[in-house]
């Protein structure tokens, strides 16, 4: 997600600093963006000059301090509150401008919980992209009860006017709009498979050909990452107490066994 968001901002003409946790991760991020831009170049969606200009907008680093003079920082780490809170506390101390906006790409964690890890909760907002960020047109903008309305307006205008995205305004409730609806559906498909109602292939085919979805729920879960699905389900279950949000036992076992979906080569399907 982080690389995808960086590609979106770089494509929009913005100087973009990509901070990764290691040189290896930074190189993977760079390579992923270069492959994506290469496909766009091969398909004639961008020309050589645009391709080079986008690459020139990107800087890669492993130092969080290199974000100090950014006007907008978008966090896109794994769906862990503890990790996000730790990062936001560090960003609060590092980012120098009092007008800078700190945004989280969380897909489920309440924004206020993350914002209160800083001394500037009025400048913290949810900016939730969808995967793959360069392709998906939607962004959710989620202010907390402490977010300054002007910050919400700035981020909304940035997403629409600069990035060319469509914005859905969401309240600060776990899952926001899309995942509050989507996650029970995905977990329900997992329970159906777990209970032996149908094969993974037939469940996905049923929803692609029967409901017109572009991707079946188990394929989509593998794309999202089953570890992320587990964390999101746990967050929603804690917020709402609805059994529909409870992660199935099968999902927990798959995550424990390292079958996380596409990123590990195996989930509900084998990608090796």
What does this structure look like?
- With 272 residues, the protein is of the alpha/beta class.
- The chain folds into two domains: 2-169, NAD(P)-binding Rossmann-like Domain (Rossmann fold, 3-Layer(aba) Sandwich), CATH 3.40.50.720; 178-264, N-(1-d-carboxylethyl)-l-norvaline Dehydrogenase, domain 2, CATH 1.10.1040.
- The chain is built from eleven helices and seven strands.
- It has helices at 2-11, 23-42, 48-56, 81-94, 111-115, 149-162, 178-194, 200-210, 217-224, 226-240, 249-256, and strands at 16-19, 58-61, 72-75, 101-104, 124-129, 138-143, 166-169.
- It has a five-stranded mixed β-sheet, with helices on both faces. The protein has a two-stranded parallel ribbon with strand order 1-2.
- The radius of gyration is 19 Å and the shape is globular.
- It starts with a helix and ends in a 16-residue tail after the last helix.
- The relative contact order is 0.09.
- The mean pLDDT is 96.
Number of helices: 11
The CATH architecture term of the largest domain is 3-Layer(aba) Sandwich
CATH class of the largest domain: Alpha Beta
User: And the CATH topology of the largest domain?
Assistant: Rossmann fold
- Proportion of beta-strand residues: 5-15%
Cα end-to-end separation: 22 Å
Q: Please report the total strand number as a whole number.
A: 7
- Rg, rounded, reads 19 Å
CATH 4th-level superfamily of the largest domain: NAD(P)-binding Rossmann-like Domain
What is the N-to-C order of secondary-structure elements (H for helix, E for strand)?
Answer: HEHHEEHEHEEHEHHHHH
Number of domains: 2
Provide the helix percentage.
40-55%
* Overall SS class: alpha/beta
In terms of per-residue confidence, which ranges show pLDDT below 50 for 5 or more consecutive residues? none
User: Can you give the mean pLDDT?
Assistant: 96
Largest sheet at a glance? 5 strands, mixed
Query: What is the 3D shape?
Result: globular
| Spatial strand order of the main sheet | 3-4-5-6-7
